[in-house]
Every structure is written in structure tokens, then in C-alpha cells.
Amino acid sequence: MRDYLKDLQLGVRMLRRYPGFTAVAALSLAVGIGLNTTMFSVVNAVLLRDTSVAEPERLVEIYSSPSPEIPHLTSSYPDYLDIEAEADALADVAAHASVRGILTTEGRSELVVGEVATANYFGLLGIQPAVGRDFLPDEDVTEGTHPVIVLSHGLWQRRFGGSPDVLQQTVRLSDVRYTIVGVAPAGFTGAIPGFQAEFWVPTMMVDSLSFMGIQSVTDDPVGDTRIQRRGQRWLFLKGRLAEGRSAEEARAQVETIFARLRSEYPESNEKVTAAVIAGSSVRFHPLVDGYVKAASAVLLVAVGLVLAIACANVANMLLARSAARRREFAVRAAIGAGRGRLLRQLLTESLMLAGLGGALGVLIAYWAGRALTGLQIGALPIPIVFEYDVDGTVLAYAVAASIATALLFGLAPAWTASRPDLVPALKADATGQSPERRWSFRNALVVTQLATSLVLLVAGALLMRGLLAAHGTDLGFDPKPISAVSFNLAMNGYDQEQADSLRERVLESLRRLPGVEAVSVATRLPLAPDINLEGVKVRGVHGSDDEPDNVDTVEVGPDYFDVVGVPIVEGRPFSEADREGAPRVAIVNETMARTYWPGRSAVGESIHLGDLDDPPREIVGVSRDHKVRSVGEPPRSYLQLPALQSPSRAVGLVVRTAAPSRTALPALRRAVLEVDPEIVFTEEAPAEEIAATTVAPTRIGAALLGAFGGLALCLAAVGLYGVVSYSVTRRTREVGVRMALGARPGDVLRLILGQGLGLAGVGIAIGALVSALVARVLESLLYGVSAVDPVAYGMAGLVLVGVAIAANAVPALRASRSDPMRALRYE
User: Could you tell me which residues are beta bridge partners of residue 89?
Assistant: First the structure.
């Protein structure tokens, strides 16, 4: 122990003796460790942090789907009841779904997001309310009869001041008065990480709220409500395994249940299959988890490369300092210090440097986590918020990263320095100089740094090029003058007749506004994140036993095509006459017309939604193609149906204005509220902003990888400068001899620059090859840009060469201005 204390004391003295070295090394490591710890805190919050659920290893997720293309969808309430009653491998099964409502207290209204849940939801998850109770079994039996509510801890604090007297108070939620029976514990905001549910009500109250989750609908002649229809699948199911039972047993039982349901209810369940997955393997949803994990891995690798470059910098600095300490090590070895003793001392110094860098890195991660917490992912239809705390797991990661970093940057210099060549070292002067080799381990480190920097720069440049290409893509319409404003009148207590009347008054109010050119309704705008599919069959193309084709579908009103600026190239648009009770009609786009009626006009033809036995719809028009889901997609079939033939209390307004939509939105909002001040908007956004969500992953990736690449390049430049500067110092006598023999300053300048640029050239060559491999991973995010785009590679290479020249310039200029006589007397 005494020897270890001496090592620490000597290490402190050495770090204090070279404050400049200590500061530069610690800051380099702090940047690398800080970035890695920050990114790990994000991954920890999104993918790793435990939820407050009890015994999560016994939970399973249950999905059903009518389509093998998307096997993990939601379940209907009748199917849920069958699973709960018959699957004895499951001790309990609960159901829940996301909803929105307008919360009104003390005359103030706001849109809140919550869940409907079965009475056993909290019990199955092992959640005990902080105040009051959860739902009683008889409160979730009959539709609409028990308006009780459990508040989230956050909503309780925000709207009720955390009052313990909140129980039995009533609140108005979407024009229904609910009695508060409980408050969820702090930290519990639902079973889906990041989803901030602010209330829970029984599933039997779902029709009084606005549903906002994932659902699929198949034909079902039985049932008038969402709860009753077996063919309407909208609930997420969670099961808790019975003691001693396995997920495989539960899966087999659920599959048996669905086999029976397919036989007994062919109209709604003929093609429905089920899937049971261990809850521990599902974070958000099977469709999403893979993408999130892949993105997290890419970002962790990127920041890991930055840390590796920082380690290479410090390793180079330690190698240079070790060369200057050769005489010291030789003396210590000559008086009896073994190699292990020297190695331990040098590694102790490295651990102290890493500890200092790690402590600064944790501070960076703490600051970054505070900045990131509360940011919402706006591209999603529901609010997702995470808290990126520096908790015990993150601290453990930072400690492990610091130790690994110390070994990574300290082992090679320590190994080299702990084995001095005694006789030459003892004869050397105090500088410890020895002849300079043409290629050294330090050179290899710099080449690795430069190659790694190029990989990050190329990745960022490719994404940026893809982003520019996406912005230059012809969308088929101009989103700049278009606004989207949505609200759901069911949340205000309107029946269908009242909703239809108010919608017409709102449309008329908007048409009277100065600068408004056209107004209509639509269930979505092109490039919006929500996707609506309809199963379509065309007689002569499909047989009665064929599966219908899933086609992207939207319901729109009269004047819609004038609003979005998409012309009807054949036939006519929808009119006020295309409403409920009139002949069923549809408009297809050019791609859909070519797909199903090649070589002839689609106008006058018919399509069937569902089976060929279902009532046909006549094609009355063909619209010009435009982008539907994403900027980079190939031409896609798009089916447009008249909104007036499918009455709904959800109102989606689309407005075209002479002024840009960003400046027009406040006036549009005021015009709607003048008709009914209690309307709460579910969406109010410029179409340009909605369209931008499709390139959000590319934009975020370009920003992050570009920033990481720039930071890595700065660190690599420091390393390159250190190598060339050290080399100039070692070659002082050589430079003096050359200049004494007639070499001009320009010759010396070219000599030194050539050395540095030679290293840069090797780094660029290696980095370009690695970049070509890495770029294949990013292909799905590139719009109209090749993974080997020469412009992106050229831009990254030029930036790297420019930085290399700048890093070499100072030592090269210093060498070219050397005094030959002083250089020759150097030794």
C-alpha cells in the first residue's frame, strides 16, 4: 500500500509540474468521456432504464393482426375478454389505449393525453396510487356509467397544487364530469417509456374521448360501439405469467384461442393471428424497437470514435513526454527499479489523468442531460419525453469509460517508457533525445485519428447532401402557403349533427378572412406522419379469394385539391353533392390509375374497399401524383375519398393563404375560436413543418455526425500538430545542417509540410475505404445520393487537408526560421 501511495504522490507532482500538458490532456479526455457519457445517458433513458413495473420478467406483450405484413398490432375488446378468460398460463391480462381529452378546471381548458385502461391495469403492473385508489372491478363493466379518473402525479401538482383534498373532486374532461378517485405515484406516467400519460379512466369511457392510438378495422356486422365490435382492434394487451408458467405456454394458449375465434367469427377474425412476446424484449413496440436500437448503436459508435481520437491524442502526448523522461527512467532502472514498478507508476499517472477527465466529462454529461430533458420528439403523433439523468448506471458507465480510457491511452506509452535502453539514455542530455524514425507508433496514432475523423466527416457530408437533395425534390405540391388546423368536437360534447353544423360555420368564417384563397377538410396532409391504409380490390385484377391491396387513403372535402395545389388531370374533383346518401365515389392518383387500369382511362371504373361483394365506388377523377409518405419515396398509389360521405366529429382543416402559413396561422386560429371559444386544437402547424418531419432522422443524423466529425477533426489536428512539432524538435540539428549547407527556408518548409501532409494522405486513403463501408449503413437515410457520392467524399477530404495544412504550418514555419548556428549547438 505504501508503494501505491508513493505512486499517487509522484503522479500528483508530475501532473502539477507540467500544468499545460495536464490541462490539454484532461480537456481532451473530458470532451470524449463527456460525449460518451451523455450519449449513454440518452440510451439508458430510452432503452435501458427500469420502469416502475413490479416483476417485469413475468410480463408478456400480446398482439394481434389481420395482416402478416404488420404482425404486431392491437386487439379488440371482445378478443381481450376471451384471452383473459381462457389463457390460464396468464395470471392476469390488462388492456390499455391512448386517448386525448379537453380538461377543464376553474374555467381553464387544455388538451391532455392519457389512457383508458381496464380495472386491473394498475394491479397487473404492481403500481400503488400515491393518493386514493385505482379502479374498482364494477367501474369497468358497463359503457359510460362510471366516470372516475386517476390523475398522474404531474397533473395533480400542476392543476391541483398537490392538494391531499383532491379526492372526490370533479373535473370536466371532454364535457363529461369525472370524479377523482386516485393519484398515480411520482415517476409513473404509463407502461410505455417516454409516453407522458396524465390521466387514466376506465375503458368503458373510451367513446367520450378522442382515441389516438394504433388500430385496425375489419368487417364486423355485430356491435354499435368500439367496445362491442370484435373487428375493431385498438387495445394494447399486457399479461402477467402465472407462477411456474412460461411465455411459450402463454403463446401456445393464445394461438389456440385465436384459432377458435377464426372459426367462430370469420367476418372479423378469419385472417387474424396472434403473437405473444416476453415483455423484457419489448421497449416501445416491436416495429419501433429495432430502429431505435440501431440508431443508438450508430451514435454510440460515433462518440466512441471521438473518444478514441482523444485517447490517441493523449497517448501521443505521453509518448512525447516519455521520450523527454528517458534519462529519468534510465536512472531509476539503474538504481534498482524493476520494469513492473515503472509500468505501475506510469499507469497510475494515466489513471489520474483519466480520472480528472472523467470528472469533467460527468459535469459535461450532467449539463447536457439538463439541456436535453424536456425536449419533445415533435415528429410523433403523441408526446414523448425522457429524463436524461446522470444516475448510478450512468456514473458507473463514466467510471468504466475512464478506466478503459486510461488503459487505452496509457498502456502503450507506459510499456515503451518502462523499458529504457540504459547506456544510450544515460549518455543522452537532459532532453532524452534519440534519432527520429521515419515511421513510429505516434505516426500510426495520428493516421488513425485522421482516418477516423474522415469517416465521421464523410457520414455527416453524405447525410447533409441527402438533406439538400430532399429539400430540392419536387413534392408535387408547394407546402409553404398551406396550414393544417385540427380539433375533435367529440371532446367538446358535440353530437354528429352539431359537429356538422359547426364545421360549416368554421369553414365559412375562414373563407371570409382576408388572404385566404381556399379552405377544405382532410384527415391528413401529404407527408404527415400518420398513415391510413385501406384494403382495395378491383374486379378483373383481384379474385374473390385474393388478398386486397393495401393502399394509402385520405378523406377530403370539396376544394381540397385547390388547397394543396394538386390538379385533377382527368375527370372532376369532389363537390358538395358527394355526401352521405349520394352514390359512393373516389379519386385516384396517376400511379394508381396506371397500376389498375393500364392503357385506358380510370374515370368511370369501380373499386371495392374490402371484398368484391362490398358496394363499389366509382372513380370520378384522377389527380396528379405527389409525395405521400416521404420525400424520397417512388411514385405511390393514393386513394382519395369524399369526407362528406363518412361523417366524423373530428375536424381536420386545410387552408391555403396568400401569406406564408407561419404568419397566417394566428389569424386562422382566432377565426375558429370566434365560432366556439372552447375548442382546443389537436394540431395547428404549417404544412411545410409537417413535411419536414419525414426528413427529421436525416437532419438529426447530419447535425450530430457533422458535429462529431468536426470535433474529432479538431482533436486530430491537435494530434497532428503535436507529432510534427515534436518531430521538428527532434530534427533540430538536421535542419541546422541542411540550412548550413545551403538549404533555403522554403526547402525546410516543404520538408516539414511534406511530412505532415504525408500522414494526412495516408489517413485520407484509409478513411475513404472505411467510409465506403460505413456509408452502406446510412443508405436508407440518403435521398437521391449515392453511398459513394464523390462530392461528399471530396468535401470531407478537402476539409481534412485544410486542417492538416493549418496544423503543420506553425511548426513548419518555426523550423524554416531556425538559426543554423544555434541548431548546430543544440546538442
Answer: none
